[in-house]
From TrEMBL:
UniProt function note: Catalyzes the phosphorylation of pyruvate to phosphoenolpyruvate.
Cofactor(s) recorded in Swiss-Prot or TrEMBL: Mg(2+)
Enzyme Commission number(s) of this protein: 2.7.9.2
Protein name: Phosphoenolpyruvate synthase
Organism field: Haloarcula pellucida
Length: 760
């Protein structure tokens, strides 16, 4: 049958009803107050895509690099077109509409996605698929198809890739539930969502619950001590907006909360006590902490959803120890405060994000500051150091995901976007819910804390694996240096100089014109020194300027930049440095200054080299500024087939190392623009042609005793690590969050090689 009523569904039916539908059926079967609903089964979705002949095209469309935002956008658009533009079979339409008619009274319904990999004990998939509220009979079939299509939103594709779920094996059911025209609504955690302490946390606001879970409103926050059976804290927020049904159109709209109710407490003690009782029943039934959505209408409380809490780390006692001694000094430096929605302490550069198209300015380790969070921000949150919002609460979808990602978050500050500014150095304490001046030491227990457990990023609490292959880390911006150093990486495999320049918002020439050559040199020196100091004596490999002309054109002084059809193939890298020797020598002077300060751990790397002539001209510039190539470690990027094929003559120039930039090398070898959705599916760093070049370069470099490294995005892929460690690469440099996994993978490969040599 295409549909099934909740009365026939339980938690054993996840494969058919999805996580949400199975949970609702289980709650109803337990006698708890759940509004009537039926489920359009996952089998119906699977039959729809297979009978319509769109399944192969669909899965091919979403087989993309989830770190590539352009490819993700193209995949989402193509998947939506395939599903929404295809008709549902007539027999299925009839069954769905007949089930709707059984509600009687032609009611409004909520149409809610229920994926088969959703609301699971180890992955909540919060907010990854769509929900449509106040849907009538005329729009029901369209909204069901849009729920199916939402299985392939950018955020859903990205999240499944991060969690290791195969797109082809995940199906989706759709819950069609009679609407509760909510007067009050919110979310309840039966345990503290970060610490696991025995307290019920309730967030509540006026109107429909979508405003709470989406982060559109800062809700009231109540904590109920389960052991003492008493209300512990009540925080009444200013609730400026609410979501309600428009009486004329039937659509869900955002309205201003009446002035007299904005600062009024939403829940009284009787309602909290009833929610406490329901929370106890739900947790006892499932035998694990639950995240519950609820709403009230005509004085009755209804349960709309329940899923396991996936974000509790360690025991409550461990958490209390982690949070000890956090009061005292430093509170006078607080710039913004709110709810500590995801624990950890991180210092970084604030990036105020007003719209989704501004997320590109968020670099590794930056602090996202925004009015409210949405699940579409997950890719940016992954690279961010922390998150700060004006609105939202601890139970909003993005807050849940930030805890799963281990990104510290302060939610519901009310004024972060108006108080903090771009490029401001701030310290975010996700335990206490405060944002402080980042130039002053935050009050902590004396140990560096990051992510949810208080351990350095990437450590996962294990002893650092000992590997013959150095596992290094990429650092996008100097402000992320301490966080990167805390991973235990063997050094920095790539520090990009262009980020230091782009952060000034001026082209190098404009900066020199405005401030002078010495100021430009000092700017580079200070940035590089920040990273070198955090890692000393571990090596830090700095790449000279490699910004394409279109990036410089956006800066002050960029009007004179050349207009290029394809800047990636144009005026960039070493070719630009050699054509602009004055600017190149200013970069080299920054290196010299740091060498003179004693930072002998710095390594100089030249980008986009094509042949030995490039290298000879560059090393001549080194000598002109007083850097002896014989006494300093330097090398080149192998990013073009030309440099790979000329590797022997490059080695003969006297370089110390080469580093593979697989993003460019793959594009130039395969003639594929990875940001072009039309051909992005053909982009493959593991293509035999690319791998052949990598193996040949490593073999030649070993003959010349030249070190080899990889610092491109592909370095994080286990198979790439396996291939290159097997080939004898010297080091692998990955992003901050991948250091520990790379260490473990390299150790596993090395142990296999040792075992094979013994057996032979």
């Amino acid at each position: 049958m295409p549909v099934a009523w909740l009365s026939a569904i339980s938690t054993s039916d996840v494969d058919s009803a999805g996580g949400k539908g199975a949970s609702l059926g289980e709650l109803r079967d337990a006698g708890l107050p759940v509004p009537p609903a039926f489920v359009v089964t996952a089998e119906t979705y699977r039959a729809f895509i297979e009978e319509a002949g769109i399944a192969d095209d669909l899965f091919e469309a979403v087989d993309v690099d989830s770190e590539d935002s352009a490819a993700l956008a193209s995949a989402e658009q193509r998947a939506r077109e395939l599903i929404v533009d295809t008709d549902i079979p007539e027999r299925v339409e009839s069954s769905i509409l007949a089930a709707y008619d059984d509600f009687e009274g032609d009611p409004f319904v909520a149409v809610r996605s229920s994926a088969t990999a959703e609301d699971l004990p180890d992955a909540s998939f919060a907010g990854q698929q769509e929900t449509f509220l106040n849907v009538d009979r005329a729009d029901l079939l369209d909204r069901i198809k849009r729920c199916w299509a939402s299985l392939f939103t950018q955020r859903a594709i990205y999240y499944r890739d991060q969690q290791g779920f195969d797109h082809e094996t995940v199906d989706i059911a759709v819950v069609v539930q009679r609407m509760v025209d909510a007067e009050k609504s919110g979310v309840m955690f039966t345990r503290h969502p970060s610490t696991g302490e025995p307290e019920i946390t309730v967030e509540a606001a006026w109107g429909l619950g979508e405003a709470v879970v989406s982060g559109a409103v800062s809700p009231d926050n109540y904590s109920y001590d389960r052991e003492a059976e008493s209300i512990e804290t009540v925080t009444v927020a200013t609730k400026k907006t609410m979501h309600v049904r428009d009486d004329e159109t039937g659509e869900t709209v955002e309205r201003s909360v009446p002035d007299e109710k904005q600062d009024e407490r939403v829940l009284d003690e009787t309602e909290l006590a009833e929610l406490h009782s329901l929370g106890e029943l739900i947790e006892d039934h499932y035998d694990q902490p639950q995240d519950v959505e609820w709403a009230t209408s005509d004085g009755s409380i209804y349960l709309l959803q329940s899923r396991p809490i996936t974000t509790i780390e360690g025991s409550a006692d461990e958490s209390r120890n982690d949070h000890a001694d956090t009061d005292g000094g430093g509170t006078s430096d607080v710039l913004v405060d709110g709810l500590g929605a995801s624990p950890g302490t991180v210092t970084g550069t604030a990036r105020v994000v007003g719209t989704l198209d501004q997320l590109d300015k968020v670099n590794q380790g930056d602090i996202i500051v925004t009015e409210m969070t949405t699940p579409d921000m997950v890719p940016a949150m992954k690279r961010a150091g922390a998150l700060v919002t004006d609105e939202g609460g601890m139970t909003s979808h993005a807050a849940i995901v930030s805890r799963e990602l281990g990104v510290p978050a302060v939610i519901g500050s009310e004024n972060a976007t108006s108080t903090l500014t771009d490029d401001q150095m701030v310290s975010v304490d996700g335990d206490r819910g405060v944002v402080a001046d980042g130039h002053k030491e935050p009050a902590t227990d004396g140990e560096p804390r990051s992510a949810s457990s208080g351990r350095p990023d990437g450590s996962a609490g294990d002893t650092k694996p000992m590997t013959a292959t150095d596992i290094k880390v990429n650092v996008s911006i100097p402000e992320a240096a301490e966080r990167a150093a805390a991973t235990g990486a063997d050094g920095v495999g790539l520090l990009r100089m262009e980020h230091m320049v782009l952060s000034t918002n001026k082209t190098p020439q404009q900066y020199v014109d405005d401030h002078g050559e010495e100021a430009f040199v000092n700017t580079l020196t200070d940035s590089m020194r920040t990273v070198a100091e955090a890692f000393y004596p571990r090596p830090v490999r700095v790449r000279t300027l490699d910004a394409p002309s279109d990036e410089f054109r956006q800066l002050e002084g960029g009007d004179d930049e050349p207009s290029e059809h394809n800047p990636m193939l144009g005026y960039r890298g070493i070719r630009r440095s050699l054509e602009e020797p004055a600017t190149f020598k200013l970069q080299l002077r920054a290196f010299k200054k740091l060498y003179e300060m004693g930072y002998d751990s710095l390594e100089l790397m030249l980008p986009l080299v094509t042949d030995a002539e490039d290298v000879h001209r560059a090393t001549a510039s080194l000598r002109e500024v007083g850097i002896d190539p014989e006494k300093r470690d330097w090398g080149v990027m192998v990013e073009t087939p030309a440099s790979a094929l000329c590797i022997e003559e490059l080695c003969e120039t006297g370089l110390d190392f080469v580093s593979f930039g697989t993003n460019d090398l793959t594009q130039y070898t395969l003639a594929v623009d990875r940001n072009n959705g039309t051909v992005a599916d053909r982009y493959d760093e593991l293509h035999p042609a690319v791998m052949g070049l990598l193996h040949d370069v490593i073999e030649t470099c070993r003959e010349y005793d030249v070190s080899t490294s990889i610092c491109g995005q592909a370095a994080s892929k286990p198979r790439m690590i396996q291939e290159l460690v097997d080939a004898g690469i010297t080091s692998v440099s990955v992003n901050v969050d991948a250091v520990h996994d790379a260490q473990r993978e390299a150790k596993r490969v090395e142990q296999r090689l040792i075992l094979e040599s013994v057996r032979d």
